[in-house]
Structures are given as structure tokens and as C-alpha cells.
Design goal:
Largest sheet: 5 strands, antiparallel
CATH topology: Creatine Amidinohydrolase
Keywords: Aminopeptidase, Hydrolase, Protease
Strand content: 15-25%
Structural class: alpha+beta
GO molecular function, one term: aminopeptidase activity
Protein name: Methionine aminopeptidase
Organism: Streptomyces lavendulae subsp. lavendulae
CATH superfamily: Creatinase/methionine aminopeptidase superfamily
Amino acid sequence: MAGATKQRTAHDRAGLSDELRGFREVQRLAYECAETVAAQLRPGVTEREAARMQRDWLRERGVRDWFHLPFAWFGDRTAFVNFKIPLQFFPTGRKLEPGMPFILDMAPVYRGYAADIGYSGSLGLHPVQDRLMSDLRPHRELILEQVRERRPLREIYENVERLMTRQGYANRHRAYPFGVIAHKIDRVRERRWSPTAFGFGTQSLRGLAADALHGHREGWSPLWSPYRFSDHPPQPGLWAVEPHLGFRGTGAKFEEILVVTDSRDPGESAFWLDDDLPHVRRWAEEKAA
């Protein structure tokens, strides 16, 4: 942890400080929203209401654009049970019950900087999800280590999946469109009117499409998937990474920004943007205990 903090400080002293701080600010804002809304959840709240709570909280703090609007998943929907089509990801009337796990997921754009985060919790104790969250720690470590080794994204994806299998879990990010574990994010131009389409910000979608076109010409993709188009080394930039574990109808994940650079120094070639996040603090407390 200390090494990662030192690396961020070194980057702050370099020319990237303002940009990285901008992305870190919106990521922290999103996680603050998740923690605040999670603390307000009560029995009977629906997924739609939880999504609206996130949206309202962020709008009150100046968010006017989105990579995607907030999601909320309750119960077995945290593991994407029987998800077959993209529409099933959108919030429903499912009500939260005592002891039920939940995931809050949001991707706000703030002052032109984007973030995409995932927060896992439960209404009361849920030992299975607690174990899932603890077992996500080695995935964060594995991803960083292998990105620094410049292994192909497809190979890293497969190694993450193998670790999940050894742990006895199912890979639930395979249920996402294109089975992605991550996607690139970029700056977004600030505008007075920022429309959404099918829950996604049109400006962010255009940026992702432009990255896809540019990457196709150069042999890389902005989507980190198990498919051939991700069979290339990590592309420099910012990646929103979200390993998602499932076990018997319970799911858990984190999602945060990984910074990839073109540095030849392994320690500088990739680093997590921020180590002061809820899941990272949780693991530090578990280790200390």
C-alpha cells in the first residue's frame, strides 16, 4: 500500500497531477455516494428507488453527465442469476429484505472527468458476501501484477477466471455485454445538455466508439474481454476494472480505476489510482485483525 501511495505522489509531481486528481476526485465522489446511499437503505426499498437515490445525491453535488446512470441489484440479482439480455441489468421493482446482499454501481462524469465504481454490501449480516469480498483481494493484486508484466489482456482475464475457479466461485462479469472485466474511460467535454440513451451518456458512448475505431486500426480494443480483440498488451490510459464473483445466488465486486502508462519501470507502468477506497480499507482492517 505504501508503495502505491508513493507512486501516486510521484505522478502528482509529474505533469499528470491535475488530470489524475480530477479522475480521483470523481471516483471518490462516487464511492462517497455509494456509502451514503448504502447507509440509508431499508427493507422495502426497491432497486429503482436505490438507483434514484444515487442519481439525486450526485446531481445535488454537481453531476450533470454520466458514463452510465446508476444501477442497483438486490438478492440473487447481485450474481446476475438468469440474466440473458441487457435490459435485465436495469433497476427493477425488486425490494430489499433483511439480510439481503446488494450492489450499487454508478458512473458519473464530474467537471469533465469520468469514473465507474461498484460497491457491494448487505442489509445486515451476510457471511457469504463477506467471504466473497475478502476473496476479491487477490484479484486486485493479480490484475496489477500481470498488467505490469505487460501480459495480453485476454491472458490476464483468463488468469483471473482461473483464480475464481480455484476459489470455488463463478465469473459473473462474463454476463456483462461482451463479457468485459474492464473498459477504458477518458475525459468528457463539459456541456450544458448531456443526454443519455439506454442509460448511457451519449458523449461517453461516442468517446468509447471513437476509441474502438482508433484501436481497431492499431490492433487494440477499449474493452477488456475474453475474446480475440483483447489479445493485446494493456493500452496506456485509464481502465475501470470490475472483477465480479458469484456463489449460489450471491454476487460481489469492486470497480475502480487502473492507470496504465507507457513507462518501462514496472512500478510506474501501472498503478491503482487510489488506495483509499472502501474495499481496500476493508482488506487493510482484515489484515490488521
